[in-house]
Amino acid sequence: MTSDSSASSRKTVDVVCVASWNADLVSHVARPLARGETLMASAFSISPGGKGSNAAVAAARQGARVALIARIGDDEFGRMGLALWHGEGIATGHVECAPGERSGVAQILVYADGDNSIAVYPGAGAGLGAQQVQAAGALLAGCRVVMASCEVPIEAALQAFQMAHGSAGKALTILNPAPARPLPDELLARVDVLTPNESELFQLAGAAHAGSIDAAAAQLLTRGVGAVLVTLGAAGCRLYQRDQAPVEVAGRAMAVRDTVGAGDTFTGALAAALARGEALAGAMQWANAAAALSVTRAGAIEGIPTLAAVAALLT
């Protein structure tokens, strides 16, 4: 069963997101827990989440026309996702609602310094595969950017990126490799822009390159990735491309509430900027500013800024 909305009927969109969805169960605690330890939380909330969903909302708030390819449970958390996407004007014609299955959940601990730890149960999203992606061929043939994360099954991301680069596809592909896991060269060769954070970069490149961002990025470029755009938190981001000097964008001093969703905001804002024709070096400026703004408010969705807010920060 697929969902429907007025936005879902659009044949042409700017950004297609092969999306994970989950409800965020967020507890605020003073510090990370030791094994076997119990701490009292100072606050708790349930809010929309999932790396793909967050990035799609970020792209939409940056002015892109966005569509999802996703699989959710036919439950209260799934209905939360549909309500969010409809409210953001995101097309949901290729969101499958799986009867009898639960939607994904993320259990998030936010610490006093704004950092966090996250455990994700994918739920119905684990069933997203090549078949659902193939059914969205018209969307993929007409869009400008296709993005995915490692929260969705690899076969779904690979199918989408193959179609984006196929005879009918002309779209750029963005992969946010979070959570980091081993990725086949077949997939990496289809990635135009990879957006890892520093930890994910080292996990993907392997122990031999740990400690050197330059060496780790170079290793991934040799495996076929078009560009490696490393997010460095408060230090900004750094772009690596073959036979070119690295391009660095400095971080911005912001009052941090929490960092939940900052990486997703970066990826979504990057996709939107590329879709409207920004060059990669310019698009990373927009993405860096959007991510900086996102940490000033609590929660992944509440922190995602609008295009106007990012433009104001950049002026």
Structural write-up:
- With 315 residues, the chain is of the alpha/beta class.
- It has one domain (7-33, 40-314): Ribokinase (UDP-N-acetylmuramoyl-L-alanine:D-glutamate ligase, 3-Layer(aba) Sandwich), CATH 3.40.1190.20.
- The chain is built from twelve helices and 13 strands.
- It has helices at residues 51-61, 76-87, 130-134, 137-142, 154-164, 185-188, 198-205, 213-222, 262-275, 280-294, 300-303, 307-314, and strands at residues 15-18, 22-28, 43-49, 66-73, 91-98, 103-110, 116-123, 145-149, 172-176, 193-194, 227-231, 237-241, 247-249.
- Strand 8 (145-149), helix 5 (154-164) and strand 9 form a beta-alpha-beta unit.
- Helix 1 (51-61) crosses helix 9 (262-275), helix 7 packs across helix 8 and helix 10 (280-294) crosses helix 12 (307-314).
- The longest helix has 15 residues, at 280-294.
- 50% of the residues are buried.
- Residues 5-10 have low confidence and may be disordered.
Would you spell out the secondary-structure blueprint of this structure?
Layout (H helix, E strand, L loop, with lengths): L14 E4 L3 E7 L14 E7 L1 H11 L4 E8 L2 H12 L3 E8 L4 E8 L5 E8 L6 H5 L2 H6 L2 E5 L4 H11 L7 E5 L8 H4 L4 E2 L3 H8 L7 H10 L4 E5 L5 E5 L5 E3 L12 H14 L4 H15 L5 H4 L3 H8 L1
Parallel strand pairs: 1-4, 1-8, 2-6, 4-5, 8-9, 9-10
Antiparallel strand pairs: 2-3, 6-7, 11-12, 12-13
Helix pairs in contact: 1-9, 7-8, 9-10, 10-12
